[in-house]
UniProtKB/TrEMBL annotation:
Pathway: tRNA modification; tRNA-queuosine biosynthesis
Entry binding sites for [4Fe-4S] cluster 2: 212, 228, 255, 258
Protein name, as recorded: Epoxyqueuosine reductase
Location(s) in or outside the cell: Cytoplasm
Residues reported to bind cob(II)alamin: 70, 148, 169, 172, 183, 230, 255-256
Family statement: Belongs to the QueG family.
Domain 4Fe-4S ferredoxin-type positions: 190-222
Catalytic center residues: 148
Cofactor stoichiometry and binding remark: Binds 2 [4Fe-4S] clusters per monomer.
Residues annotated as binding [4Fe-4S] cluster 1: 202, 205, 208, 262
Superkingdom of origin: Bacteria
Primary localization: cytoplasm
Amino acid sequence: MRGFYTRPMADTFDYVALKLKIRQWSAELGFQDMGVAGIELAEDERHLMDWLAREQHGEMEYMARHGTKRARPAELQPGTLRVVSVRMDYGDGDDDAAWDTLADGSRAYVARYALGRDYHKLMRNRLQKLAERVAGEVGPFGYRAFVDSAPVLERALARNAGLGWIGKNACVINRGAGSWFFLGELYTDLPLPIDPPASAHCGTCSRCIDVCPTRAIVAPNRIDARRCISYLTIELRGSIPEEFREAIGNRIFGCDDCQLICPWNKFARHHGSDDFSPRHGLDQASLVELFAWSEADFLERTQGSAIRRTGYTGWLRNIAVGLGNAPGSEDVLAALRSRSDHPDPVVREHVAWALARHAA
């Protein structure tokens, strides 16, 4: 991050040419797309405030903590004139393998974005390098890089930058690349030319709404986080409401169903990067195997992984739910009994629920 500067009124720099160079540098740094958005997000702000007023953010207090800064870039970072939005693909090009894991109740399903390296630091470092290249061209300028690190309406900004539209599942969808990608932003005081926003192409399709296991997509582009498996297995602290446990199935960290079913993801591309390849066999692991991890194992094997966010007790809680939904076997029952006296009451509760399901 650098301080923002007041640019001279008679600034005659060729920002059209600069934007072309930024696009080239973005590609060289491993971003698959970039675009430039303005900072007007009034309609999205109204949507956000209504979502918060309905308490559909659940326990994610941070979504409301910063007031209007999330929808007003110049309030978050004074001096901001434009937002450079970038996309980095993480899909593996094999949706059938994901469906196979979901269909095998003995295996653990981890959301694709979390199978490999945590993208936050990786993308921030590349955005920093992008900013340094810009500085080498224009001299000192104001910027700040974000990758899920501040109150930013990244999807609305990506849409306005032309990277894709916000689908009915609230994911950004690109006509030529689907939705398996991460987003990052560079807030800047440079008056770069703005790209036209992406138009929507979901049409009458409702596959994502229909496939959601917990009916969390309560309306097009409206997610009730309190019902969402990603929220329940990652953001929620404490007990998962019993009404959702069976529907969670074997999803122990996040959920991809609404993306797996999306017809636009037939155009998604393989990420082609070792950074996002599965680690520790997480794309093939069994629930019993992962439930046996000690806390030391968890900390070692999730180093540099987004899975760390759920914490070790959250990890065990989620796997206990998966084991409760798994086909009955001596291995499953033995695994659950091994944690029946766990010191954490939330883990004990979910283990007891799982054992009761098998007893029934």
